[in-house]
Amino acid sequence: MKQSELLIPAELHAYMMAHSMPSDPIQDQISERTAQFEEVAHWQTAPEQSGFLTLLVQMLQARRVVEVGTFTGMSALAIARGLRPGGELICCDVTDDWTEIAQDAWRAAGVDHLIDLRIAPAIETLRSLPVAADVDFAFVDADKPAYWGYFEELVGRMRPGGVMAFDNVFRSGRVLHPSSDVDEAIIDFNDRLARDERVDVMMLPIADGMSLARVRD
User: Fold this and answer.
1) Is the pLDDT of residue 11 over 90?
2) To the nearest 10°, the Cα dihedral for 135, 165, 105, 41?
3) pTM across the whole model
4) Is the four-CA dihedral 15, 211, 214, 71 of positive or negative sign?
5) N or C: which end of the chain has fewer CB within 10 A?
6) pLDDT tens-digit map of 116-171
7) CA angle 194, 195, 197 (to 5 degrees)
8) Strand order from edge to edge, sheet including 199-204
């Protein structure tokens, strides 16, 4: 089963995409180049998530954004396209194995000057950021057992009303029937996030599940 078919049938998914923000040649090129990495190609942000991220960043009128987990750059491209003039996106990734694809796409789209790519353990990059409540939006799609650590580093740096988005919170449905330590880690993260009094949380049925956490005023 494709990830897009986890929640809705293929025909309905196709209908949804036909009535949503379409992909463009730059996004298609990212998808084509990512496909060569067969074992990890499924890490790529789903098309419906790309459009959603752009709209969300636009609605938040975001200027300062942090991304944890960049891979081949699809989500960063979507986010950068939604930034307000003068905005900045800090991208955290632990390796540059795939980010050449990302950087080529960002240049082609004319958004590379908005993106600060930092190759290092993401938790170290987050800890190096100023402890100031000025981040408008954060997107986390990286190593799942580290999600809570990323949340703790981000929440104090978000402005009141800022939003964090966490991807893959369904684990392909395995949150209901866990079969690995990673599944258990996401179950624990989901439970803790839902109880945290610093944020208001909504889990959305998009792709493999995405939780939005809005920092309370």
Assistant:
1) yes
2) 150
3) 0.94
4) negative
5) C
6) 999 999 999 999 999 999 999 999 999 999 999 999 999 999 999 999 999 999 99
7) 110
8) 115-119, 88-93, 64-68, 135-140, 158-167, 210-215, 199-204
How distant is the alpha carbon of residue 164 from its chain centre? 9
Are the beta carbons of 117 and 99 closer than 8 angstroms?
A: yes
Distances (CA, A) of 33 to 27, 30, 36, 104, 151: 10, 5, 6, 11, 31
The answer to whether residue 2 scores a pLDDT higher than 80 is: no
Helix segments in 25-111, DSSP class H? 25-34, 47-60, 74-82, 99-109
| pLDDT, average across residues 66-91 | 97
Cβ atoms within 10 Å, residue 151: 21
User: What's the confidence (pLDDT) of residue 1?
Assistant: 41
Q: Please give the backbone phi and psi of residue 143, each rounded to the nearest 5 degrees, phi first.
A: -65, 120
- Residue 38's pLDDT band (boundaries 50, 70, 90)? confident
Pick from 150, 153, 164: which is nearest to 131 by CA? Answer: 153
Q: Is the pLDDT of residue 5 over 70?
A: no
d(CA 96, CA 103): 10
Q: Would you call 49 helix, strand, or coil by DSSP? A: helix
Backbone angles phi, psi at 100, to 5 degrees: -60, -40
Structure token pair of residue 48: 């419906």
Strands 210-215 and 199-204: antiparallel
